[in-house]
Task: inverse folding
């Protein structure tokens, strides 16, 4: 069994967001982090690895520095990493990206017992589209918003966390699961993992490696091939200050009422 | 100092852990209530930090002194007590076992220590002895397959929750000074072992310190650690590594104080401008930062040299602890000074750091003992 975990390097939203002239994010100028939901996906995979000893592969599409992120995931416990990287892939929207990643996964091979884990969504675009689109292109079942995962042979029992409740679903492998942050608490890297991660294999898949993949339509990848055009990206101006009122609900309500009364609102 | 990607990643990981897990609430609770936070320790242990310097074959992480130094620095920058939680099993606890334990002893104890399942502490100090080993009064007398231990150890960090203690005891009363002393692995559950009340300390509250008393404690000969009558030399070797750890803790606290001082001096306004606009303040900050950087370079180089078994690394370890602990006390003093009256109030972190840092020039050999080691090597 092999678990592919799709991960994305995203801008650290606690810093300032820089934008290119064509409307896309200027990723080079920003501090990056591993997308938080993807960390939950990785932890879910590592838990299954702890129990079964399966192989865990971290997969990402991004510029060459994204290799650093793959090393970090290997230091957490992943066995190897795959970096999909090429100028031709740059500027891809979710439709183009999922095609390329699906093509890469197909190229790597998805066996009967294999699973693809993704984070629910990335904090930069917040679309939650790439995971489901990868599943569609690979023609494997998908279960989104996993808040609990139980593995029993080649069946996964998933508790989906939805806005108004939850839903329990069983799904057979191979399948794709998107994970929410309630699923688990991601582990830290270990010193042993860090020492070893620089000797573990990272496969780079560039455009020539994937150009003949049947799942990839060369006319619909990259900035030019992407159906989505970004009109404008910007850092929203701050709307004013927020004050957090601490204490129990009763205390906070009292304090709020007092403040509103002072301003003659109530 | 430029570190390789591997060590930068270690630093990033230690920093991330410290900033996430050593919350203000936990820091304040540790200081207010003392005691030992099992939950916090479990988190440290779960991530392998108790065994970063313990080899992989004994369940550790297989890291080196530089990894160990980076952990102490980054943990201590946020929470000195958190650094001590992770430091003890790595240095004073497992050090003597790694240095002279036999295979059976290492296999029996180290995996539990590395995983945080068992606590091991280092018991050298006595009311009349410590750095002056000649004053050791604890005795171990051979009796058949056992030794009978009698005596009292004091100021033993971690004693109240210890499962094992490394005990130094006189096995040959005819030999003088540091000779005639042996090391034992003491199972703290043996009959005749008792632990005193936790000391009330100025700082590093949240890591209890107490006496260990031994009254006719029967310790098996298989728990003799290292050569008979020659244990103190090993104690000194362990202390070298430990001293580097304390140096790194000092460095971390100093960095924490500088971070706080920079932030506060830019926010705090007096006479119509931030106080950092005054040279009286900004020069203090320049001085703090420069001293910190000097200590950092000394400590990192010493760590690298120690792992390459450089001949004089024990002198450099003493220099690191001497310089860094005194430097950190100066830096903490200045940080409180920059905060003014607020630095004297418990709501501000520098108040606690100022108290926590005081022990750094005392434990694992005072500054003056480090100076004895350094000058002793130069003037012999």
Result:
């Amino acid at each position: 069994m092999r678990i592919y975990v799709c991960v994305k390097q995203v801008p650290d939203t606690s810093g300032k967001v820089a934008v290119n002239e064509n409307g896309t994010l200027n990723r080079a100028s920003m501090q990056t982090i591993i997308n938080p939901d993807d960390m939950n996906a990785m932890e879910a995979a590592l838990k299954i690895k702890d129990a079964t000893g399966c192989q865990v592969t971290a997969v990402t599409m991004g510029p060459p520095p994204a290799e650093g992120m793959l090393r970090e995931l290997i230091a957490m416990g992943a066995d190897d990493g795959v970096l999909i990287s090429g100028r031709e892939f740059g500027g891809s929207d979710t439709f183009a990206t999922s095609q390329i990643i699906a093509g890469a996964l197909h190229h790597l091979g998805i066996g009967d017992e294999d699973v693809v884990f993704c984070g629910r969504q990335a904090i930069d675009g917040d679309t939650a589209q790439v995971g489901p689109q990868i599943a569609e292109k690979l023609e494997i079942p998908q279960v989104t918003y996993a808040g609990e995962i139980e593995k029993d042979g080649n069946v996964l029992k998933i508790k989906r966390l939805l806005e108004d409740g939850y839903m329990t679903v069983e799904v057979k492998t191979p399948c794709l699961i998107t994970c929410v942050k309630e699923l688990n608490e991601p582990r830290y890297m270990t010193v042993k993992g860090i020492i070893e991660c620089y000797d573990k294999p990272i496969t780079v898949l560039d455009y020539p490696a994937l150009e003949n993949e049947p799942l990839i339509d060369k006319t619909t990848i990259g900035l030019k091939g992407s159906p989505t055009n970004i009109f404008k990206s910007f850092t929203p101006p701050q709307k004013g200050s927020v004050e957090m009122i601490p204490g129990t609900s009763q205390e906070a309500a009292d304090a709020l009422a007092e403040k509103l009364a002072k301003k003659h609102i109530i | 100092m430029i570190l390789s990607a591997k060590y930068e990643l270690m630093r990033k990981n230690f920093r991330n852990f410290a900033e996430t897990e050593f919350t203000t609430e936990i820091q304040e609770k540790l200081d207010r209530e003392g005691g030992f936070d099992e939950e916090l320790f479990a988190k440290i242990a779960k991530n392998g930090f108790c065994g970063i310097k313990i080899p992989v074959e004994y369940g550790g992480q297989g890291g080196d002194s530089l990894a160990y130094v980076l952990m102490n620095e980054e943990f201590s920058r946020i929470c000195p007590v958190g650094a001590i939680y992770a430091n003890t099993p790595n240095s004073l606890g497992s050090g003597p076992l790694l240095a002279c334990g036999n295979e059976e002893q290492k296999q029996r104890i180290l995996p539990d220590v590395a995983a945080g399942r068992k606590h091991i502490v280092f018991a050298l100090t006595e009311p009349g002895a410590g750095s002056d080993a000649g004053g050791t009064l604890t005795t171990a007398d051979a009796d058949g397959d056992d030794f009978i231990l009698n005596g009292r150890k004091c100021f033993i960090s971690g004693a109240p929750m210890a499962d094992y203690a490394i005990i130094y005891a006189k096995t040959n009363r005819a030999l003088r000074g540091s000779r005639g002393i042996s090391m034992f692995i003491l199972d703290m559950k043996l009959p005749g072992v008792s632990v005193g009340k936790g000391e009330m300390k100025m700082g590093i509250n949240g890591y209890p310190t107490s006496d260990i008393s031994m009254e006719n404690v029967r310790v098996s000969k298989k728990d003799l650690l290292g050569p008979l009558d020659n244990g103190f030399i090993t104690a000194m070797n362990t202390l070298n590594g430990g001293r580097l750890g304390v140096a790194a803790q000092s460095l971390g606290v100093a960095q924490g104080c500088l971070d706080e001082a920079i932030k506060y001096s830019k926010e705090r306004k007096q006479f119509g401008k931030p106080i950092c606009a005054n040279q009286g303040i900004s020069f203090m900050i320049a001085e703090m930062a420069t001293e910190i950087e000097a200590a950092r370079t000394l400590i990192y180089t010493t760590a690298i040299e120690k792992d390459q078994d450089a001949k004089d690394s024990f002198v450099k370890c003493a220099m690191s602890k001497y310089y860094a602990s005194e430097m950190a006390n100066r830096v903490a003093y200045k940080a409180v000074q920059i905060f003014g009256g607020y630095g004297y109030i418990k709501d501000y972190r520098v108040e606690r750091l100022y108290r926590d840092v005081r022990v750094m020039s005392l434990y694992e050999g005072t500054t003056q003992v480090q100076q004895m080691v350094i000058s002793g090597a130069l003037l012999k």
User: Anything to note?
Assistant: Chain A touches chain B through 14 residues (CB under 8 Å). Chain A has a mean pLDDT of 90. The CA atoms of residues 157 and 170 of chain A lie 4 Å apart.
